[in-house]
């Protein structure tokens, strides 16, 4: 074999060996990267905790007295707690919906017109609480608000017993209950009296109330407002939620439902505007085809298309 041929063969052999070594190293490197990437992916997909099966299969109900006042029927100071019953091993906390009934501050009960709500909210993962409070004329303002604040405190302190998340509390009220929750959500003194900040509420839902401006309503609707708020006109501005709306107070986002005559609707819109001017998110919907009781009954009704779907979207995007 000629020297020139030997040189060429040597070069080819060396090149081939170098290629094989480089390919082997490359494959080792790729395998190392693959292991690293698989480890990173495994870490990324690893759940922080096993949430278990949170499918709701039913509801449990518990009635509790949230405070005691000598001489007062304990039922007036009680609440019903409806807790989602899950399939098994659910390890996540539920948002809270606290409901305050209406009745002109003079009648009503925590069990009235809540069948749809007490079914709907637990089925959607909420702990649902319906609250009683003392009524006029046995008591007057501000007792209604103080009772509801005490109920909120009880729920807050006992939330873990029901698997509830105290960072996701929405308070809802219909009619007079809407006036009460609007007061408790804008006037910080009621929660402060029980040791809670106004930021305790993530959201508030007011269903067809005229109680935003007590000064305006008490002067014209004496049959309903004066037994609840008295005849001293100087106390009415303090009782009006609209007068307590201001920026920087941690007022919760509001969902407002209104209907009826133009005066009633304009009162709700004035409250919404005041909230917005204070930098508070306030959603308002009008339901002209529903009457006063129809608004309350519609919330949670499987057939409802006017309030419940919009409310659920609000809750999903704003309150959780």
Description of the molecule:
The chain has two domains: 1-46; 53-318, Rossmann fold (3-Layer(aba) Sandwich). Mean pLDDT is 87; it is low at 2-23 and 25-50. The chain has helices at residues 3-45, 115-123, 143-157, 176-186, 189-193, 214-220, 222-229, 236-239, 262-277, 292-298, 308-318; strands spanning 53-65, 78-88, 94-100, 127-131, 164-174, 203-207, 253-258, 282-286. An eight-stranded mixed sheet has the order 1-2-4-3-5-6-7-8, sandwiched between helices. Helix 3 (143-157) crosses helix 4 and helix 6 (214-220) packs across helix 7. It contains eleven helices and eight strands. It starts with a helix and ends with a helix.
């Amino acid at each position: 074999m000629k020297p020139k041929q030997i040189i060429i063969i040597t070069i080819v052999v060396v090149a081939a060996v170098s290629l094989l070594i480089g390919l082997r190293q490359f494959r080792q490197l790729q395998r190392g990267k693959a292991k690293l990437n698989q480890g990173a992916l495994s870490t990324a997909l690893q759940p922080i905790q096993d949430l278990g099966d949170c499918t709701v299969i039913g509801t449990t109900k518990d009635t509790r007295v949230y405070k005691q006042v000598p001489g007062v029927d304990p039922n007036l100071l009680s609440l019903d707690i409806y807790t989602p019953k899950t399939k098994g091993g659910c390890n996540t906390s539920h948002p809270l919906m606290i409901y305050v009934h209406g009745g002109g501050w003079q009648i009503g009960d925590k069990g009235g017109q809540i069948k749809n709500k007490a079914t709907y909210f637990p089925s959607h993962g909420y702990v649902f609480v319906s609250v009683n409070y003392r009524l006029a004329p046995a008591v007057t303002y501000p007792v209604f608000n103080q009772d509801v604040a005490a109920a909120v405190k009880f729920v807050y302190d006992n939330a873990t017993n029901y698997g509830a998340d105290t960072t996701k509390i929405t308070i809802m009220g219909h009619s007079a209950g809407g006036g009460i929750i609007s007061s408790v959500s804008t006037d910080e003194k009621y929660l402060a009296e029980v040791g809670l900040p106004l930021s305790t509420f993530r959201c508030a839902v007011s269903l067809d109330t005229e109680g935003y401006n007590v000064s305006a309503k008490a002067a014209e609707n004496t049959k309903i407002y004066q037994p609840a708020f008295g005849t001293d006109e100087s106390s009415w501005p303090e009782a009006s939620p609209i007068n307590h709306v201001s920026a920087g107070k941690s007022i919760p986002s509001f969902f407002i439902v209104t209907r009826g005559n133009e005066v009633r609707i304009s009162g709700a819109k004035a409250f919404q505007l005041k909230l917005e001017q204070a930098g508070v998110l306030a959603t308002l919907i009008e339901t002209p085809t529903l009457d006063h009781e129809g608004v309350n009954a519609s919330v949670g009704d499987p057939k409802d298309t006017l309030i419940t779907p919009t409310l659920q979207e609000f809750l999903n995007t704003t309150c959780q």
